[in-house]
Every structure is written in structure tokens, then in C-alpha cells.
Specification:
There is one protein chain. This protein has helices at residues 2-21, 23-41, 54-84, 87-92, 97-127, 136-163, 167-184, 196-202, 206-218, 234-262, 265-278. It is globular and about 60 Å long. It contains eleven helices and no strands. 76% of the residues lie in helices and 0% in strands. The N and C termini lie far apart (40 Å).
């Protein structure tokens, strides 16, 4: 087990270096930050019932969405693509390969997410007078909400990646639901402006609670007036995110094992032949 962790951390470090050298991949994450900053720069209203700039609420929501997106969009695409390329098959035939692979992916995703979040908050504070935690308690809240938020979506993203058919369909299958949650979870405007049934549906999913937890860390207490319950409900934030983390792990482990068991040289060759015939790979 210790060897698996060590190998996973080493592999994660290698993948991080590759990511930093991949201009296309890095530009995608930077684009998300730039879009958030541009939207915030052009929003001038206050949150209804408060004197809090709407841009601050939107930046807190975008911060939550970026964490959510990396776990539920980027990670499944990475897993499906590497499965198609035979990485999962090679890991299965290596002693301790699957645990090391999972550790490496966790390292990669966590560093990507935390780095993107830090970049967004720092750039927003410097360029558009964005919000930052005001004291040790707020910094602590930012830390545990970010940690629980990632724990709630990364295993779920791994489970989704284990069952998606191929990289070409992966983005289409996960993008529409996540974009729907972006607009119904109170990340781009106050959740109280949405119909009550929409609020109730959004409250089932982790993004709503991630955004609420980050708002509690980044916005002053007067912003609670714009919350559905009139408070931050931090115990409920912790409970819902923990429940999703447990559910994600319960789903991810057996699904990834199943995906690894189903991999074989013949299946990999068949996928490559099909891709070559369709023109997506050279024959």
C-alpha cells in the first residue's frame, strides 16, 4: 500500500509537470479565470437587499463552479481518454498500478483545482477589487469548504469517467447537466431569485452548497440576507458535501475496478480499429 502511495505521488508529480508544459491545457484553465474576471468587471449592481456588490457574489460562485468543473468535467474526460489509449490496461498489469493511478489523478486534480482557485481569487482582488477572506475564521472556512467540495466531486467524477463510453461523447454527456447546475445553484445570481422548486432541486447537488460555503468565507455576514434560509447554514454545507463524498467513493471504487477488469488487449485494438475507420485516428 505504501508503495502504491509513493508511486502515485511520483506519477502525479510527473503529470503535473506535463500539464504545466501543455500550453493548450493551461490556456483552458486560464480562459475560465479570464471569463470570470470579465463578467465581474461588467457587473455593477448590488445584491438585492444588501450593499454587497453583485460581482463579489458572482466571483464566489465562479470559484465554486471551477472546483466543480474540474472534478465533474475535466477528470472524467482525462479518465475516458486514458482508458481509450490503453493506460488503464497497462496500470492493471502493473503491481499496485490501479491504486497508484488513482492517487496520481487525485494529486493532479487537487493541484489543478487549488491552483485555479488561488489564481482566480488573487487576480480578482488585484484587478476588480474582488473578495477575500477577512480573518482566520474565514480562511479556515475557505479551506474546509474547498477540501470537502473537492472530496464531494472528484470521486463522483472518477465514477462518471469509469462508465462513459468514449472521449467524444464524454464532454456532451456531462457538460449539459453541469451547465444547468451553474445557472440553478445560485452561482451567478442570488438563489432566492429562482423559483422555489428550482431551489429545492439545486439543493440536492453539491454545487449549491459549495457556492454557499465559499460565499460565507468570502463575503461579509450582511450577505446572508440573500440566502434562502437567511443564514450560511454551514453545518448543512458540511453534511451535504460529506454525504456526496461518501456516495462518490462508494460508486467510484467498484466502477473503476470493473472498468479495469473489462480492459483487454483485444478491446483496446478493437477501439483503435473503430477510431481509425471513423477517421478520428490515423489508420
Amino acid at each position: 500500500m505504501a508503495n502504491g502511495w509513493r508511486a502515485g505521488l511520483q506519477r502525479g508529480g510527473i503529470e503535473l509537470r506535463h500539464l504545466l508544459r501543455n500550453g493548450k491545457e493551461m490556456s483552458g484553465h486560464l480562459t475560465n479565470v479570464v471569463v470570470a474576471l470579465l463578467v465581474a468587471a461588467y457587473v455593477s449592481d448590488d445584491v438585492p437587499g444588501t450593499r454587497i456588490p453583485m460581482a463579489h457574489l458572482m466571483l464566489a460562485g465562479f470559484a465554486a463552479y471551477l472546483l466543480f468543473q474540474i472534478g465533474l468535467i475535466n477528470l472524467p474526460q482525462i479518465l475516458v481518454t486514458e482508458r481509450e489509449e490503453g493506460v488503464l490496461l497497462r496500470m492493471r498489469t502493473t503491481p499496485g498500478g490501479i491504486p497508484a493511478y488513482l492517487v496520481a489523478k487525485c494529486v493532479l486534480v487537487v493541484v489543478m483545482a487549488v491552483g485555479t482557485l488561488a489564481l482566480l481569487l488573487a487576480a480578482a482582488a488585484l484587478l476588480v477589487d474582488g473578495p477575500l477572506p477577512h480573518g482566520p475564521g474565514d480562511w479556515l472556512t475557505l479551506l474546509w469548504v474547498t477540501t470537502l467540495g473537492l472530496l464531494s466531486v472528484v470521486p463522483l467524477g472518477a465514477a462518471i469517467g469509469a462508465v462513459l463510453p468514449n472521449p467524444r461523447e464524454a464532454l456532451a454527456l456531462v457538460m449539459l447537466p453541469t451547465m444547468g447546475l451553474l445557472f440553478t445553484s445560485g452561482t451567478v445570481f442570488p438563489i432566492t431569485s429562482l423559483p422555489v422548486p428550482v431551489q429545492q432541486v439545486a439543493s440536492v447537488f453539491p454545487l449549491k452548497w459549495m457556492a454557499q460555503g465559499l460565499r460565507s468565507a468570502l463575503l461579509p455576514d450582511t450577505a446572508r440576507a440573500a440566502e434562502a434560509a437567511g443564514s450560511w447554514e454551514l453545518p448543512m454545507v458540511a453534511l451535504v458535501l460529506t454525504a456526496w463524498a461518501v456516495l462518490g467513493f462508494l460508486l467510484a471504487v467498484p466502477l473503476l475496478r470493473r472498468a479495469a477488469r473489462r480492459e483487454s488487449g483485444s478491446r483496446l485494438s478493437a477501439r483503435h480499429r473503430k477510431a481509425a475507420q471513423s477517421g478520428t485516428l490515423p489508420a
